[in-house]
Amino acid sequence: MTALLPFQRQIVDGLLDEDALCIVARGLGLRRVVAELCWICATPQALVFLLNASDTDEQALQQQLMALRSGHADACALRIIKNETNPAARAQLYRQGGLISVTSRILVVDLLNDIVPIELVTGLLVLDASRVTAESTEAFILRMVRERNAQAFVKAVSESPESFTLGFAPLEKTLKALGLRHVQLWPRFHVLVQEDLALAQAPVAELRLPPTRAMIELQQAALDCVSATISELSSATKLLDPDAINVESSLFRYFDALVKRMLAPHWHRLSPRVRGMVTDLAALRRVAELITAYDCVSLLKYLDTLLLANKSPTQAPPSWLASDSANILYSVARARVFSRRTATEDNSDEANDCMRALGLPDSIVPTLEVPPKLVLLAKLLEEVGVANCTAVRQGGSSTSGPVLVMAGSARECQMIRTFLATAHESVDLGHGGKHPKMMADLLRGFFRWKAQMSSGGAAGNSRGNNSNASASSSPAVAAQSQSQAVRRGAPAAKRRRVRGASAAGAKLPRAPADALEQETATLASHIEIHAEASQPLPHSGLDDPHSTEGINLDDIDDGWLDASDQLPEFDEFFGILPTSETVLVRSYMASDTDFLTLLQPTHIILYDPDPAFIRQVEMYQAQGHALNQ
Questions:
Q1: pLDDT tens per residue, range 426-456
Q2: Which of 58, 99, 210, 400 could crosslink 42 through cysteines, CB 3.0-4.6 Å?
Q3: How many CB atoms lie within 10 A of CB 268?
Q4: How far apart are CA 570 and CA 564, in angstroms?
């Protein structure tokens, strides 16, 4: 357990002096401050409730309190109450006192049933105070406790300062819901924080990599679609603020929450078309983010999935799908993955056989644009490895820690791990030349997914044709099913009161996914035709751990079980990897505030920059740990 920095001790002292809402910048170790407060309150003579604590918070606080309790026999542990605890056991825990983490639903029921001795409650610690509103359960609990026990303290903390900038007077509303009057602000530029973090500055090297031309075109097309959708949404409803809802503000993370917050009071009055535009706006913003986060194959698969999701026989597709920007978006995304082979290009049998052997259609030319950030990351790791080896050869210390690579999501972490594991392997794709193994595997998976979509669509069409045939063979059954459809509230295009013929009246504008269906069917036919031509790998029996096929048990020598004779060979190929040769890939979502202290890396590479994690690195260095450049 690391000691508190001076500014963290000042935060603790400020909360102990008065009841207040403490807002701390994300990454400045708020959980360590909360652990110190919990350790002070965790005594048998006090009854303190911990509200709004997630499972991750409870586990981390339990570990930190266990470390702080060493040498203090009178300190209590954090008690956690879940729905498995019966009312009698809960009442006994309340009488014992100490620090108790309980969900808001359970606590409000116990308060109403007089199971909690309110007169014995010492205070309440509220985590993630930005979630507390006037209508929340936490606000009702605070009012009940304050009415019957005015001496109970209330201390709230939050590390989400951006939540207090949305809407009308959000900070004032939160203070009113908490029943507090004082606010303590601790941003990164606070004087005390600057003094503590300036003692050890991390050596930083910023590498700016320009995007490819295709990425620029994709981003421009995605922003054009977002701009068109915002304009259409603003013309459809006058509830949005034009100064806050624009293309520039759509680049920020809170844009979706801001739009929904403005439309929430009137959501039940909005038409399905307006609600669909709100969903399309979030999907388009997601596409703009994935252009730099995903590889080219995964991005194309996401776009095709988005296209199929908007295809419906009963309603018109979104208007942005019919725009020129959407056409550019899909064409450029597909050109990054493959292109159609023309008659003038190479049509040799050797290249076609190579494509068929890999399960790919021979009518395409794979282009497979590798993400530039992955290539740069591989070069950086190679430079770090060379520098570590040089330091060891020159007689330097070999106690350097691992290399930590931080990414924005688990999907990016998986992509980085796969690319680094197969960085030195390439696959010959015939017409497209050699490409990294990861990209070739992604391309094969993409065409298998296309084939599965085609087979599923064909099965659905066959079921529809069979049902139509059976209905036409029996007019009475058809009439009965039609009347049942009307009673169920079938779409207006399927009812009898349609001007003109029923077939013509039921004909609605189709989504522009017909071209995708034709391409899917063509590629699926190529894959099915050439699937038998590709020879499967010989079965070695390793897929099934209980299989003994191909193994003669009589030929096994009993001496092989004695591994003492093979220890030198084992040590030559296996063993503990030095920390200087270890590369760890983690995501910001799956990382807590103490993992840097546990891993103790000496090199940190930010695949996706994150201000909160940069503050964690500064805290890590301020605690006495060193980083190499």
A1: 888 776 678 888 998 998 888 888 888 776 5
A2: 99
A3: 6
A4: 10
Nearest to 130 by CA among 167, 105, 160: 160
Other CB atoms within 10 A of residue 132 CB: 26
Tokens of 49: 């409730």
Query: Tens digits of per-residue pLDDT, 122-135?
Result: 999 999 999 999 99
Tokens matching residue 82:
């879940």
Contacts for 261 with CB less than 8 Å, ≥ 6 apart: 166, 167
The stretch 388-413 carries a mean pLDDT of 80
End-to-end CA distance of the chain: 27
Identify any residues that bridge with 584 across adjacent strands, giving them in sequence order.
Answer: 404
pTM of the model: 0.77
Give φ, ψ of 154 to 5 degrees. Answer: -135, 120
Phi, psi of 254 (to 5 degrees): -80, 10
- Torsion on CA atoms 395, 401, 402, 408, rounded to nearest 10: -140
Q: Look at residues 379, 377, 337 and name the one whose alpha carbon lies nearest to residue 214.
A: 337
Q: Distance between CA atoms of 429 and 448, rounded to whole angstroms?
A: 16
User: Is 624 or 331 the better-scoring residue by pLDDT?
Assistant: 331
Tokens 């979502």 belong to 589
What torsion, rounded to 10 degrees, do the Cα atoms 331, 336, 340, 346 define? 150
Amino acid at 14: G
pLDDT 10s digits, 100-114 = 999 999 999 999 999
**Side chain identity at residue 309, one-letter code:** A
Helices (H) and strands (E) in the chain, counts: 23, 14
- Which stretches within 265-312 are classed as H helix? 272-293, 296-309
577: Cβ–Cβ under 8 A, 6 or more apart, which residues?
none
Token pair of 132, please? 């507390």
Nearest Cα to Cα of residue 596 among 607, 608, 612, 581: 612
User: In the numeric block, which tokens belong to residue 383?
Assistant: 């430079």
C-alpha triplet 126, 127, 132: angle, nearest 5°: 70
Neighbours of 58 (CB within 10 A): 15
